[in-house]
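Sequence in, structure out. Go.
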Amino acid sequence: TKIQTAIAQAKQSGKLIISNRGLERIPEEVLTMYHVDPNKIVVDFTSSADAWYDSVELTKFMASDNQLVVLDERVGEEFGALTLLDLRNNQLQDLPHSLTRLKNLTHVQMPHNHLEYMPNVLLEMPQLRELDMSHNRLTELPPMVNLGRLEILLLGNNKLESLPESIGQLSHLRKLHVNDNQITELPAMEAWQRLEELLVFQNRLTILFSDYPLPSLTRVDARHNQLKELSESSLELPKLLEIFLSHNTLGNADLRMLTCAPQLQTLDLSWNDLDDLPPAVFEVQSLRRLDLGSNRFMSLPSRIGSLRNLQVLTWEGNPMRSIPKGTSATELIEILRSQLAAENGDLGKDDNEDEGVEGDYETNHASAKTLDLANQNLDDFPQSFVSQIDFEPVNIQLHHNLLSSFPLNLSSFATTLVNLHLQYNEFSDFSLCLPDQIVLPSLKTLNLANNSIANLVTGNQVSFPNLEELNLNNNCLASLPETLPSAVPQLKILLLNGNRLDQISAKSFGRLTVLDLGNNNIGLLPPEIGLIDTITELTVYGNRFRVPRQAVLEKGTKAVMEYLRQRV
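Output:
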């Protein structure tokens, strides 16, 4: 049987895999796999068959994706050498106390179960280094003072309203995920000297950091909270690379904490009711990506041009009428830098005056036209719409609608359409090969973020021959076609953050310059990516892979690419 095959393999490898078998209990033959009938022992050293004395101890027990309601207590009695217990995606409500016998057990993975409380047995395992309790029904946590060796603690997608202060004392903690709960306050971070990643998005926090330095922190995601300020005072964040703060209430915050993050590369301040940029932002000279979208900016300060490393600037969704949405980020950044240089060289200009790009930009780009049909509950784009449009749009806004298929009537604007925004619709798949031989030769940016796209299709026809930027953030993609470069031959920027990518191939990435693979499920980063010499920005945080190690990731794109090249 398949179970017997799994047992035979486990006796050779020390790794038992009985996942995805519809099991309601652990099979008896598994629990007795090391039992030997003394009356049947035959010692024959000339035989080539597997012998009982050749069996290795079981170190990894993997029973995920079954229907287990109760875990047999004999698991803790029979397999004393276990280091990893993977029980994800079952129906467990507790764990047997016999697991305390597993003195070598360091990794427990129990996401997607029915746990309403932390099993007491886990609190008696001081050797634990990784504990995944995400996607359960936890409403509160007990003190965790005995788990002082924990390095990874995953508690996302539960019903927690608070965290015990003892979590703040976990001095070995490297990764803490408490996203998608109802937490109003984080514990004092006094002992988090090794913390590298903090995910707290989708909670009710009003302030993010306590007044303790976080010398190892590299990534923070605090989107969708109620943040009014980041911290009450300055704190040292010497290794922070990314901080995501969208959908908060930071309109009156001074953000002075950012001046203590000298390596910060990504800052997301979208959806924060900002009408001005705090001076602290201009001091972060390491910034490469700045997202100011969906705020209340009437103009962008030319001082943004002083950020010498800035490569990506997002501003859509602000009430700035004189900046066509068809303007590329690169173009806008250059305009800001040129204007800043002109202001610095104009002795007659008032030192306090900073008009930003409002005004001058309009005279140069008045011909650019935008068709805004966002937030209209549209599930189609009929020909009748086309006949009512008396200009040739360069930018079309169709985000936040109900579209589930590509609006083919957009081909009426094929010669002028440069930027197309289809984020926040209902696409479940998307074909880069449009029917009826439709081609959009002028399209340069296509935004498909925040849909439910699980399948990206290519074909023989090139429908987007000049597309340079494709945004697929926050979809459901588990894989990518290797034919992607031939489908979009001019693609330079590919954003895939927040998908479900597991296995990827470097063949999918052609001649990209910017590649964002953050927050996926990638178990192996192909070394061949290091051979794509056009890549200048590579984002890979928030995945499963263990190499390159965090120390390499912290050094940035150049170090990661060099690491990968050396392993081809």
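Check: Residues 329-345 form the longest helix (17 residues). Confidence is low (pLDDT under 50) at residues 347-368.
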